Amino acid sequence: MFPRLASLALATVVVACNDDGGQPSIEPLFPADYSSRYTEVRPCMSSGDHDLHNVRILVDDAAHDPYVDRTAPFPVGAVVLKEEYDFGDTTCSGPTLGWTVMQRLADGSSLDTLDWEWQQVDPDRVVVSADEPRCVSCHTGCGVPPDGYEGTCAILP
Ligand code: HEC
Q1: Measured from the CB, is residue 38 less than 6 Å from ligand 1?
Q2: Tens digit of pLDDT for each residue in 27-74?
Q3: Alpha-carbon distance 140 to 2, whole Å?
Q4: What is the spatial distance between Cα 113 and Cα 131, in angstroms, rounded to a whole number?
Q5: Looking at ligand 1, which atom is closest to the CA of residue 148?
Q6: Is the peptide bond before 146 cis (omega within 30 degrees of 0)?
Q7: How far apart are the C-alpha atoms of 19 and 107, rounded to whole Å?
């Protein structure tokens, strides 16, 4: 009797996490109004590694100094966001194709993902993938400053 009740309770929780019976919904790691709260740290430029998209890189306040100075560690929760635009949109002014985003986890808590949480998010703010191995494996190869820092890859202007 008791185990059956427990599994019923669990099923209820799982259903409650689903929007429409499909995949469990995951929230994007960045807020919808990020453009008024985040700071651009690298302007629009082409990315040979992100599908030849043009990209802008933005950070929240917590990520700003570690990202720009590359000396202090990223605090837990810090967010680094990439806005992605079409190959032909060299000023990043048209509609965005979506975002890739990283959020810092505690040191040593997730060595498989370089202590970051990773997401790809579509223009409707639907999380398309989370912690994809290809994100982690490519970012693992980014090296040390100035070629990358703590799992981030951009060479800053
Ligand atoms: C083939 C290699 C490669 C893959 C795969 C890749 N990235 Fe990147 N990523 C880069 C490089 C290189 C940069 C530096 C900016 C640039 O020039 O594109 C970057 C930049 C970023 C940035 C901006 C912060 C920074 O400086 O690194 C974020 C956020 C990001 N990637 C997230 C992701 C996510 C999420 C995925 C998987 C969905 C992913 N990346 C897959 C190579 C890669």
Answers
A1: no
A2: 999 999 999 999 999 999 999 989 999 999 999 999 999 999 999 999
A3: 47
A4: 7
A5: 26
A6: yes
A7: 33
